[in-house]
Model the fold of this input.
Amino acid sequence: MQNTATLQARLDELLRIAKSNERKQDNFQQYELALLNSGSLHELFSIILDQHKERFQLTEVTLLLYDPEYELRRLVETKTGKHSWRNRLLFTETSQFISQYFSPQQKPRLVTFSAHQHTFLFPDHDQLGSVALLPLIRQNQLIGSLNLGSRNPSRFQSNIGTQFLSHLAAVVSACIENARLHEHIKLVGLRDPLTGINNRRFFDQRLQEEVSRAKRFHTPLSCLFIDLDHFKRVNDNYGHQAGDAVLKQVSELLNDRLRNTDVLARYGGEEFVILLSHTHSKDAAEIGEQIRERVDAAEFTIPSGKTIHVTLSIGLATMTKEGNIHDENALVAAADQAVYAAKLSGRNKLMQARDATD
Done:
């Protein structure tokens, strides 16, 4: 009877372990599907840095990425709003900084937490018990490190579960690279190939967002419509390459003056447009005048080595709670009419929409 009871206890224990492993496998499969189905880089980071910690009951999860050209950082910064995971998303410009945490074989490392060695990877936790550092590799290149931390000293022990963690690292690596490429393709589709600034398609998307936000919070939104004066003469006298050079240099001057929240785009040809959020007409006019004066004072170098002088005309319109402009079409149309009035009145000046109406 005792042998039978012992055998039954062993079977019950094996069954319990089997069910536990089945739950763990199901949990990981759901997590893996969430990673693979993520629709954007931001969603992917949220899954890795927030859901991972909750799903697998960890104290901390951080992600260190190799970003020598600041590409990933720019992609993250293109989205407004704060994210709980921002402080746990880390970057480095040197691959050696990541490789110092791994052996030449670039295998997962499961070790006791060391404040001296791991402070950078876990900036907000200095009393962890054990950590797992997972190398993220794509095309035999180390692109980052997924870092898991637990207060339990025995949670991560050397050579325990490394096969599972290696699989996890491979999935995360592939998802990050795919999301980066996807975001890059989207970004390229919203960029003007000549000047490198936003194109009309991007502007139209942001215009709707900014108008909606301005209405919701009753904040002013100003639009500067910019047109280079006599630009056809530049192309006719010096060639289209000279015109392209001027457009590039003008876009740089425009971009240098703006805040991170402002939107600059090439609207078409020699036309540019700028959205100034939370900006009344008086402040927008000052910004526009500064832009106009900077361009007027600049000398633009063309491929022949010669420098030429160009000017621009600016139309300004502002949408406010009390005003007559109520949607995106009216805002751009008013700024467009104002720049037309500036052209008729002599060029190289800024006109506000109410001036054009008068």
